[in-house]
Amino acid sequence: MRIVYLGTPEMAVATLRALVGAGHDVALVVTASDKRRGRGGALVPSAVKTAASELGLPVTDRIDDILELDPRAELGVVVAYGRLIKPHVFETVPMVNVHFSLLPRWRGAAPLERAILAGDERTGVCLMDIEETLDTGGVYGCTEVPIHPDATAAQLRAALVDAGTELVLDALDHGLGPAVPQVGEPVYAKKIEPHELELDWTRPAVELHRIVRLGGAWTTHHGRRLKVWRSALPASDEGIAIPTGTEPLGLVEVQPEGKRRMPARAWANGAHWRAGERLGE
Fold it and tell me: What is the pTM of this model?
């Protein structure tokens, strides 16, 4: 098919590469504009723009460029684009969105992260029609993905990307068919705020373990920030046991302020850690 592709972060790269590899004519890639990053403020392209350039595909940050294509694209494929698409675009070029949840549960910005925080045992990916309202379109197909109790957000994201890519390729090969209206109570997945990643050690260990699995969790030790990259539940000999509101949580990998990531035991030795000591005080 002659398609346009809309996506921005690293998780949207695999599907783009797969579409090209399957022989589809990607007429245009639309992504976020370059962002200034780092101390020097250099302009850095999105992961999708970098991949599109490597693949020799035309790329733009102006979504209305889709409407100028001649011949016009048959379909738009959207994966983590990061912006709302206006009706004048999707009413001209039909579009499908790869959404990383089992709709209508976890509509919105952070479906994967909210599924982990809620303790969901399963999630999935749906190929859905695009409407003006957020994640309300009919569904062409879904693939269920289990959530292991120790799976990190990065691991779950990789599994969902693989499932979503297969869903898109299958739909393009065999046809979309009719979109089925979503059934069930909608649940919204708001963006994860920085304060939600702070570990409150009075909470149950299972909840703290879920926060760590998101990536970027942090606490303090003697007034200095300590990032927690890996934890274990139940606590094991691999790490150090931290008291919580329920059973102890094992810290396995941490990163002290201004230093590299390291095994929690190595950090504890250097920090003169005492068994039973609390963090965040």
Answer: 0.93
- Asked whether the CA dihedral 20, 26, 30, 33 is positive or negative, the reply is positive
Q: What does the alpha-carbon distance between residue 122 and residue 101 come to, in Å, rounded to a whole number? A: 9
Buried b (16+ CB within 10 A) or exposed e, 149-187: eebbbeebbebbbbbbbebbbebbeeeeeebeebeeeeb
**Could you tell me if 113 and 41 are in contact, meaning their C-beta atoms sit under 8 angstroms apart?**
no
Q: Residue type for 41, please?
A: G
The torsion angles phi and psi of 93, rounded to 5 degrees, stand at -120, 115
Separation of alpha carbons 108 and 134, rounded Å:
7
Distance in angstroms (rounded) separating the CA atoms of residues 281 and 278: 7
Residues of the chain scoring pLDDT < 70: none
